[in-house]
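Case study 2.
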Amino acid sequence: MKNAIIIGASSGIGKEIALQLSSKGYRLCLTARRKELLKEILISLQPESFTQEMDVSDTEASIIQFRNIAQIMGTIDLVIICAGTGYIDNKMPWDNDKKTIEVNVSGFTAIANAAYHLFSKQGHGHLAGISSIAAIRGGATAAYNASKAYVSSYLEGIRAKATKESLAITVSDIRPGFVDTKMAQGEGLFWVAPPKKAAKQIISALEARKKLVYITKRWRLVALLLKIMPDAVYNRL
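Prediction:
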């Protein structure tokens, strides 16, 4: 039985990944702020699975909790960081940007860093982070796009470090397009994937040890277009 920790598993993609990994025989620890939702999901998981209330924006507490989880579970095969937030507000209030940075940057880094040190110590492991198609370029949701660019860059940095140090650590950068969750906000959404479909493709990519994957697969085409699109066109989107 493999052991996995899912950070941000109370709803959306994280919840669906948990359900599907459990059906494959994984023993899981699910973390999130909303402990009541975690308890509801736990009923459908392997008997050995458990939950831990965690607010990644409290970085010091989260690191301690992560280490405690690892001690309870023993060897950790997979860590998936799904926790994230974002806001659409044309007024761009500082409070929204601050919350985005606290969760998507500071919170993500705290867990990713702790996972890297854990895997380095035990000799192997697989770290996956949920980034976004928004990581490719800046956008009107400036803090969100920037935070996801940070996630992707940090994951690439960890992968490079592990390779340089000859560590058996796999790092996967997962970049979803629109998925039918509370995070999918705004008008003109297209190619919106059900969470179950997104989770299935993510798990398939993790099993294949892929470094970078777009969810769903067709979003790779959008990524290519975004990279070459002139500013005059991109800024009017």
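The CA atoms of residues 26 and 181 lie 24 Å apart.
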